[in-house]
Design brief:
The complex is a heterodimer. Helices cover 55% and strands 10% of the residues of chain A. Chain A is of the alpha/beta class. In chain A, the strands form 2 sheets. Chain A has a 4-stranded parallel sheet with strand order 5-4-6-7, sandwiched between helices. In chain A, strands 1-2-3 form a 3-stranded parallel sheet, with helices on both faces. The chains are: A alpha/beta, B alpha/beta.
Chain lengths: 366, 328
Amino acid sequence: MPVTMPHMGHLYIPLKTMLEYVGLEVIVPPLCSKRTLSLGTQNSPEFACLPLKINLGNFLEARELGADTIVMAGGLGPCRFGYYAQIQREILRDLGVDMKMVILEPPDTSMRHLFEDIRLLANGHSWFTILQAIRVAWYKARAIDLVEMKLQEIRPREQQPGGADKIFERFLRDVEKVNQKSHIYQMAEDVIAEMEGLPQIECYEPVRIAIVGEIYTVLEPFVNLNMEKHLGRMGVAVRRSIYLSEWINDHIFKGILPLKSNKVVRKLARPYLNHFVGGHGWETVGSTVEHAQLGFDGVIQVAPLTCMPEIVAQTILPRVSNDKDIPVMTIYVDEQTGEAGLITRLEAFVDLIKRKKQLKKEVMNT
Amino acid sequence: MVTVGIPRALFYYYYFPLWRDFFRQLGAEVVLSAPTNKKIVNQGVALAVDEACLPVKLFYGHVVDLIGKVDMIFLPRLVSTARKEYICPKLMGLPDMIKASGIALPKLIEVNIDMSKSDRALKQAALALGRYFTNNELRILRAWNLAKFSQQQFEYLQADSGQLALEALELWNGESDYPRLQRQEERPRIGLLGHGYNIYDRYISMDLIQKLQKLGAQVVTAENIPADIIEEEAARLPKRMFWTLGKRQIGAAFHFLKRPDIIGVIHVASFGCGPDSLVGELIERHMRRAKTMPFLFLTIDEHTGEAGVVTRLEAFWDMISWRDAQCR
């Protein structure tokens, strides 16, 4: 049974590692493209949020490559993601596509069901091997995040734009192939050193912008139309509110590792938002406060159109923006969003921030 | 006497009898916002973000309508009304959204109603609410029990004697002493799916129910189906539905499919409704697979024109009554 999975940013690398570790044949769907989007959009409910459509496109494209089993996550609500797999299964059934879905549901009443599903996937391997697989996957996720954070820092300072991105792409290809902790981290260190060695603009202090919002649109460059890259080229150092490894630590390891945790962020959201609202709505508000406190120059919220938790956050963000004196812009993406339109909005936002920063400096000097 | 304002929006259509009698028993006067009108819609649309759904926008309008008329506004945070279920993320954030809007609000009566983990949370919420008026716990609990009885009557009227919420509510909202109770006649029945705050709001549903009745149909909604049937039908899904209202729609849809007296089903959803984008899809797919039930899906928002809806309703009605006559 060749298995496949949905795409979300670089998630495919650790996930593939993990599934291959327990001896499964893995077919990674082609990276998200216009074709993925149209396949997904054609067959999905019109008002569903974008990730459902893209993931469906991933499954259909993986099917063409021979995959017959899908590994998908579930959820307990109230975010729509928890019901994605159910809808996708019905759509595939009506399309006559015969694919088996293994849906990993977070423990509802007992852990038994989840364990059974994992054992089923692990086709007879021991729990020791399964834990090993999870460990290696985790190292890769962490290494990729560390390198990407460096990339976000280097991009605005590069003398020749694009150099660091090329190194990063090469790293992504290489890191897939190694499976030892020391090799993975060594590779990351080398790549970081290589990026730092690129010719940089001296004494340039970039504008700093944080990207917050819904996890899928924050992590998947195809749906946020390479927002990070565009901002980097405009001379902006970007930080995200969500990195895959931090998310894994929070949600799968239940925060046992000493990484940045969503608990802190949720506390910061008070008094603006006092209750969790599903998805990442609470974290979006909290992260905006956090980055204002860290001295960032602006915040961009990105989410799929009609995303319920993010609408709550969007409603509340103007007040945070006012109180904390930090510019905030909300960008919704769907299948109609165009890259040129996005760039115009980003440029205008960055110009405003630069001007604001300049004015502040002048006031300070007089 | 202290006056408590209740916005005539969202869960007013589900819980007004409970809320009214609870506050009354605690010595407050309950004031409702005006029935939805153009001004309320416009105010709501202006205050809320564009991306919010129509019912949430309307809620803003109804809150504004109450300002200046009451001492306090009841603004609960409805997280969950049943174990392991939720209402909707937007309702979970609603009080914070209203407060962030910058409207000058009177004193708010706030409480979190979250029964997702335990039913006992409801009693705690009732006690917390009561403390806005009195410290006498016994009095609060007595008020609560009386209010619960009122709510049971309201639900009985709908689930057991087939009344529609809007008419049944007239018994409590003081608009009529003699509500126009629907007589159970032998008329063709139409199953109407949709969230209560959409289908029972006469303004935004454009009098959908009355229009159907005028065409000669008897309307049956999800609220007219006893809760145990809903549970049983919804349990046919491979995965438990975690949205309370979504579960109600899907349970009702499965039930309608089995009923020979129902000759067509209409699903009304507001534009941009998250749960309905998926629940509606499931309902549509099941209806299509069954191949026995005519189905109409109507999306409404603040721009929906009445003429367009009327045309579609009439066309649907003509088609199903013709089909019904052929089958007989």
